[in-house]
């Protein structure tokens, strides 16, 4: 490989400095340092610059050489990886394998196998809904990466809800649940879904009464919790215990690359990995083993003042600074969880990447909205990127490399519902 060519390519595509540098020529160390400083200064003083010029395309052979250089670079220890493009104050949590040990609070004993197995039965049992037609798996389908593949969730009586169904995979590592973070535990999340009048529309008394009438459930709860008297807290705990088992297998192409299989990623995905960490600025929000910061950000999609308005986190905290903010989703298996965003407005990864490349929508207040404290403020991490189509294709290839091999999950064989069992309680 021609080393001078590699240096040229790397200067243009940010391997050395972490940024796209123009024009296409070899930069001295001083020039590269100055260009990087100017880029950082402009990014700080002008968080929403005008449309960036599109990065120049390379020749086919140059893309091959760049991929080979990056493959060598990212096959080293992470300490030797290029520094990611992070805004001031953003902590550096490197992309990595999912933790092998499940975190749990000190005041919660480990879940038992009996509790996890019972939770799986309950997860698929429609007895938990008032109509007897919906279960947890209605919206969190294991064949759809524990989401539902719909633009927005469908509730009881086929009512369209307001938000897209997020996957529950790896939620065991999270501290907030739902797009607006209104639940702080699996148990709270389950209870809110069960009792929400637009979702399962049930209540604790109805759920426990139904389950207590089933001899098989009384037997299973006795084994799991030491009592045949079924209580709602044990129902919620069992559901949580099962969901805590839904953890990534560290078997995606990217995981295998991290474990030393140099050829696990194709050339496009290797280039996409580098773009993800640097020029595309993705690690400002998507970092760590789950590729999320577990925080809330405004992406300019709140539809403020319009029919589809959704102010997200603000509705939970009451803090105007949270207006329009939604939780950052993890990106593992992201290629299987379309549509995207809290409202399911983007149908494909291509749509997502194009909109991020444009800097996401910027809302402009009307005269009436100019002094409204709830007018959303788009995240300062977002700005036009100037990526070319090859860059976008490479980023997509990297995101697709986060998909894990599909595992067949057999639905829990919950006790059969007999004719008329639920008729008097719908």
> What overall geometry do the principal axes of the alpha carbons give?
globular
CATH structural fold name of the largest domain: Cytochrome Bc1 Complex, Chain D, domain 2
Strand order of the largest sheet: 1-2
* Largest pleated sheet: 2 strands, antiparallel
**Relative strand content:** under 5%
Q: CATH superfamily membership of the largest domain, which one?
A: Cytochrome c-like domain
**Helices and strands: which structural class?**
mainly alpha
Number of helices: 14
How many β strands by DSSP? Answer: 2
Overall structural domain count = 2
- The poorly predicted ranges are 1-9, 16-47
The oligomeric state of the chains shown is single chain
Overview of the structural elements:
This protein folds into two domains: 3-97 and 251-332 and 347-400, Cytochrome Bc1 Complex, Chain D, domain 2 (Orthogonal Bundle), CATH 1.10.760; 113-248 and 409-425, Cytochrome c-like domain (Cytochrome Bc1 Complex, Chain D, domain 2), CATH 1.10.760.10. It is 34% helix and 1% strand. The protein is built from 14 helices and two strands, in the order αααααααααααβαβαα. The chain has helices spanning 3-13, 29-45, 60-74, 113-124, 136-139, 186-195, 204-212, 215-225, 232-243, 253-258, 267-277, 314-317, 349-357, 389-400; strands at 296-298, 325-327. Strands 1-2 form a two-stranded antiparallel sheet. It starts with a helix and ends in a 26-residue tail after the last helix.
